[in-house]
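Summary: Need help interpreting a holo structure output

Steps to reproduce:
1. Submit the protein chain below together with the SMILES for zinc ion.
2. Request a joint structure prediction with the ligand placed.
3. Inspect the structure token block that comes back.

Expected: a single structure record containing both the chain and the bound molecule.
Actual: see attached output.

Input attached:
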Amino acid sequence: MSPLHLTTKLPLLASRTARRHCLGLQTTSFSASSRAKSPRPDATALLSDLEHLFASPAKSPRADGAPGRSKLSRLPELPPQERHLVHDASNTGQLDGNPAKHLAVDIGGAQRLFDCIFLRDSCTCPQCVDPHSRQKLFQTSDIPPNLKGRYELTGDEETGLSVEVLWENDVPGYGPEHRTRHSIDWLCRALSTALELRNEAQTDVKVLWDKDTITKNNKWVEYEAWMAEDEVLYDALSHLNKYGLLFLKGVPESEESVVNIAGRIGLLKDTFYGRTWDVRSKPRAENIAYTPQFLGLHMDLLYTSNPPHLQLLHSLRARAPRGESFFSDSFHAAHKLRAKSEVHFRKLCTYPVPYHYHHPTHHYHHTRCTIETLRAMKHDEAIPPIHRVNWSPPFQAPFDKHIGGGYQPALRDYVAAAHAFEKLLSAKSNVYEYRLEEGECVIFDNRRVLHARRAFDATKGERWLKGAYVDDDVFFSRLRVLQERFEGRWTADGVAREVVK
Ligand SMILES: [Zn+2]
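--- attached output ---
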């Protein structure tokens, strides 16, 4: 099964530096061999661009409004749908040198328009962003709507070519000395990101898997290396992001080990089960997980508004016969279902399923559709990418909608769709089974990979897992920090952004 690589190739071109940024938006997919940090722009190339710019016959870069054009004019034309971004309005600055609400900046030989409000709002000078806290020191809402600016081109070896905007009017409290500087590289990247978001492009690194795929691609990481080496951690977290499943071995026999493992990602998620919790059988268990019974494929805590992203299970005792864990990629099953029956797929996208945890001291309740797509689905539209799957039969509450009042096929249609989906989830060819040994730990994406357990014989020995959760924000924060450090880019809202100054 090949990765889902959905992205746009952008036509934006600028200096050699910016070109690398703007064309480099291919995928966040990662392999150990391609891990080199993306190199800083070649300073010589930058300087040569700068020299060319300032040595061009038009002495002032603003005189013809198209700095460096001759050198860059061989770059490809913009596709028609992007041409409206090219300057042709008389109220635009820089072509005539007058202050304006929109400024045209030459990026790769094309005049790109930037709204002054955007340029002003993203100012990072020490007056606008506190250098220590990195917090913004003015409010977007205080930017005057009639804001006008003009810019001068400037440059240095560190950031390359930049525009320095002089404001005709400004946010109250800012004097005439206030200037906003943005590098061409940064503007180019901002424009690329805006275009990708507008085109709803998604950089999706997920590899959907069945039993064969995951058996071939499973990853095992040594506990010591996980704890000590950031590069190993990045490699492992990238794999986890791709497949939703990861195994650790050599984990010390301690109730604290799962805390240490999760701590490398960030804060643990505390729930009413505790900061960590034990999966071992006990009499009159308040949760089916605490019995030796078979436990079918499910996700945890769907009855809360933000279910945990990651679940960790560390095996401290595996001395009872059986009790194998098994896993299934719900995204894979959802894709299969969509290919098999769009009617079933749409039903799972729209039918509300309530989940609950209803006990004397805790009462959680949350309703979710089984499949969530990335964008709202219009009736006649192609189906957008899958965002989430919600599947947790043991924690389902009674249905609230479409339950009576004459002939309402909705509930019956839902059951038929759920039945088809369950068949795919639990198909032998889609399920990966593994019996966790002592000293091993599994980490999985609780919003994607379903987990289950075979029954075990609690009379013949002990079975004890120590569990913990990690939230999505915590996981993606660590992943971004490491991605920025090792790859020179980071991903948010499905768009990979190059690190530029
Ligand atoms: Zn500023």
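--- end attachment ---

Reviewer comment: Confidence is low (pLDDT under 50) at residues 1-91. The chain has two domains: 16-202, 206-470.
Status: needs-info
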